[in-house]
Design goal:
It is built from three helices and nine strands. The protein has helices at residues 19-26, 61-75, 106-123; strands at 6-13, 33-40, 44-45, 48-57, 80-86, 88-91, 95-103, 126-132, 137-140. α2 runs antiparallel to α3.
């Protein structure tokens, strides 16, 4: 990891997410590769039509997200890293999560970006409450 490696954006927020904000935050003159992952609310899950969903976060979610970002930064040759996850009510097509990694080369950026989103999803205590068209619902990600 370069001495200039930095987590430039790391938040859990209710406001709508901006891909442009996340992308701009990781740009760096030493980085030739930027990998970006955007998670959006889809209209189905488990073969059922999803109407909408809500994300809830544990009070420790932001601190856990920062720790995940630090660990990913330490494991990869990335220089800049950003992760933002939304909470609250989201409709189909809304952006739920954006992560970006800038590194000197594309391979490092891709590897770190995949590690970041996978680690975020498996570690950060954010839960999804899906409501289906048939009136049923489901919580995803509860411990």
């Amino acid at each position: 990891m370069s001495s200039s490696a930095e987590i430039v954006l790391c938040e859990v927020r209710e406001d709508a997410l901006s891909v442009d904000e996340v992308l701009a935050s990781v740009r760096h003159p030493e980085c030739g590769g930027i990998a970006l992952f955007i998670g959006v609310v889809r209209d189905h899950d488990h073969g059922e039509q999803v109407d909408a969903l809500d994300y809830s976060a544990h009070p420790t979610a932001a601190d856990t997200l920062r720790r995940v970002c630090e660990e990913v930064l330490a494991r990869h040759g990335a220089l800049r890293l950003a992760a933002v996850h939304r909470t609250g009510h989201l409709e189909i097509g809304d952006t739920a999560v954006v992560v970006a990694v800038a590194a000197p080369h594309r391979g490092e950026a891709f590897d770190a970006c995949r590690d970041l989103i996978d680690s975020l999803k498996s570690t950060v205590p954010i839960w999804k409450h899906q409501r289906f068209a048939d009136g049923s619902d489901e919580w995803v990600g509860l411990p």
